[in-house]
Amino acid sequence: MVRRVLVLVMLSLVLLGWENTWGGGRMKIFSSAFSDGGKVPVKYVMPGAGGENISPPLQWEGAPEGAKSFALSCYDPHPVARNWVHWPVINIPSTVHALPEGASGKAMPTGAVELVNSFGFTGYGGPQPPPGTGDHPYMFTVYALKVEKVDLSGRLSIREFEDSLKPYILDKAAITGYFGR
Question: How far apart are CA 146 and CA 136, in angstroms?
């Protein structure tokens, strides 16, 4: 009997449009440069892989009520890359819902802070997978946070970055682009 009641309650919540608050909610992230699951164009990759290292355009929508800022990450979870961090950003104002192409280091919103990536420099470091290792996935994730500012600095692993944000995350959304050589 208790089990039936729980199933009915859960079904009712789903039918009423209830969404969880740990991600998988209504937020979505897009890029005009590539589709989710598509190829990252060469101009967005590192010069060593034939590109220009320009950060791709990104936009997001559906942030939950109460979001006071956004954070952004891009990392490569491929086994060879071992969660290589390509772009960690914090303190993007809640009024911002897009980053234009080439924003990193040049046109970031006032207050946004780019952290040190796994290459060892601040800002966006595009794909540069080792030749012969196949297509690597590059996960761009936007996090809606319930605080205006997060105090982080230096070079963090993706786990350290996400663990630092975890207490403040209202929702998150991700898009994955692939690149190999």
Answer: 32
Helix (H) or strand (E) holding 141: strand 136-145
Residue 39 is given by DSSP the state B
pLDDT of residue 13: 34
pLDDT of residue 24: 54
User: At a CB cut-off of 8 Å and minimum separation 6, what does 141 contact?
Assistant: 29, 72, 73, 74, 172, 173, 174
Q: Are 88 and 118 in contact (CB under 8 A)?
A: no
Q: Which domains does the chain have, with CATH numbers?
A: 20-179 (3.90.280.10)
Tokens of 164: 């630092």
Distances (CA, A) of 139 to 76, 78, 85, 109, 176: 6, 10, 10, 21, 4
What's the confidence (pLDDT) of residue 17?
A: 37
